[in-house]
Write a structure and sequence with these properties.
The chain is an alpha/beta fold and 431 residues long. Helix content is 28%, strand content 23%. It is built from nine helices and 22 strands. The strands form six sheets. A five-stranded parallel sheet has the order 3-2-1-7-17, covered by helices on one side. It has a five-stranded antiparallel sheet with strand order 18-19-22-21-20, sandwiched between helices. Helix 6 links the parallel strand 10 and strand 11. It is globular and about 65 Å long. The protein starts with a strand and ends with a helix.
Length: 431
């Protein structure tokens, strides 16, 4: 076998498809279900649940405004059932995409033995190997850790807990807090340092006050012990509720620990071509550390595939946009190559438009904030909270990546009724 890919998450799946398109022979090995964390335990599960919470919040808003009178009865068990049904469709589509380009998919646990891979009792030699085995939730070594839930358990519970204690202060903690609080759960979040510390301060304040106001957030607070239905904090206070770990991720690198060089955090060390310390062994996605996002994993997988096929390729990691999936999406991007000198910051509330019209009365239309470098005529940083911020920030981050001059926005005409204010701010940038 010329190319073997282990792991079918965003990195491995896209790499396999790319190799197939390039006419390469490919064996894709998956231990569990095709699609990886994003499809089976992460992004798509969060999206499915957040769609429900958006509907609940919209219904409550319309009831408050008085022109709709309705009550919603939510079945978490039925939601889980339908999410799983949807995932089955994703699985079939992902499998079909690979088979359409001639790839072979084998389900089973792979073991590496020199220049061959053993799976289901069969041995397969390879010329090139791609490791895309991803990462799993990191669980801190504290008493009672076996009682803590993680994102892997979201589709295993049959009802919404009355109370939940989330350990972690990052994006995943915020998304989980939003979902379960909107479903009627009393949620506490315990951040070891600062909650959402990588987010712009104004955006963080908006998130806390407008998007998740019912969530109790405790900063600079660690959890030292957990039980089935309570946690104990570093100041010896007890909080009732199901414990949930959102404390980061750890790489699934054990499979190659004796084959390639690892970084101190056990991620796989790679070069710009996605090569490991062994020339014909590549790695991509969360297994390599770095920016652990689905789009980045896809880019890395495609990059690795092209290099495996003999087409030199690298990945540009500058100005990679990120988001927080809440009832109103939060999107942000920063250009680390633009100077921090002579910066100008502009900020305005969100605008009326589809998905945001009925937020106007409550003054909850979102916000957009842009920091510009006036000397270089470039965007340094952008944060947007709006119903369509995912799209606007994605396009802006692309223009930032290609070093586009701000004057090029003079000819930009938005589609009405957009509720995003990026275009408004850029047209006012030099006033």
């Amino acid at each position: 076998m010329r190319n073997i890919v282990i792991g079918s998450g965003p990195a491995g799946r896209l790499a396999s498809v790319e190799l197939g398109k390039l006419g390469e022979e490919v064996l894709l090995i998956e231990k569990n279900q095709i699609g990886g964390t994003c499809c089976n335990e992460g992004c798509m599960v969060i999206c499915g649940l957040t769609d429900i919470t958006k509907f609940i919040e919209t219904n409550n808003k319309f009831n408050t405004l008085g022109f709709i009178k309705s009550q919603i009865e939510v079945s978490y068990e039925k939601i889980v059932e339908k999410i799983k049904e949807t995932q089955d469709l994703f699985h079939s589509i992902n499998q079909m995409e690979n088979e359409m380009v001639g790839n072979t998919i084998v389900y089973g646990e792979a073991a590496i033995e020199g220049d061959s891979i053993t799976v289901n009792g069969e041995s397969h030699e390879y010329e090139n190997l791609l490791i895309a085995t991803g990462a799993r939730p990191f669980i801190p070594d504290i008493p009672g850790k076996e009682y803590g839930l993680t994102n892997k358990d979201i589709l295993k519970i049959d009802q919404v807990p009355e109370k939940m204690n989330i350990m972690g202060g990052g994006i995943v903690a915020c998304e989980i807090a939003n979902i379960y609080s909107k479903l009627g759960c009393e949620v506490n979040v315990f951040a070891r340092s600062t909650f959402l510390k990588t987010i712009d301060s104004d955006a963080k304040e908006y998130i806390n006050k407008k998007l998740i106001p019912e969530v109790n957030i405790y900063e600079n607070t660690s959890i030292i012990e957990v039980d089935k239905n309570k946690v104990v904090t570093s100041n010896n206070e007890e909080y009732e509720g199901v414990p949930f770990f959102a404390t980061g991720r750890t790489p699934n690198s054990e499979i190659v620990s004796d084959l390639v060089e690892l970084n101190p955090d056990n991620t796989i060390k790679i070069n710009k071509l996605m090569q490991t310390s062994v020339d014909n062994v590549y790695a991509a996605g969360d297994i390599t550390g770095g920016i652990q996002l689905t789009p980045v994993a896809r880019m890395e997988g495609i990059c690795a595939a092209r290099n495996m096929a003999g087409y030199a390729n690298t990945v540009d990691y500058n100005s990679i946009g990120q988001s927080i999936t809440l009832n109103m999406d939060v999107s942000f991007v920063k250009d680390n190559e633009v100077s921090d000198e002579n910066l100008k910051t502009l900020s305005i509330p969100g605008m009326v438009g589809l998905g945001g019209f009925w937020n106007t009365i409550s003054r909850e239309t979102g916000m957009t904030k842009i920091t510009l470098n006036e000397d270089e005529n470039k965007i340094k940083e952008l944060t947007a909270i709006s119903p369509n911020s995912l799209d606007s920030v994605a396009y802006l981050s692309y223009l930032m990546r290609i070093k586009s001059d701000l004057n090029e926005f003079d000819n930009f005409v938005e589609l009405h009724p957009s509720n995003d204010t990026v275009n408004v701010l850029l047209k006012r940038a030099w006033l």
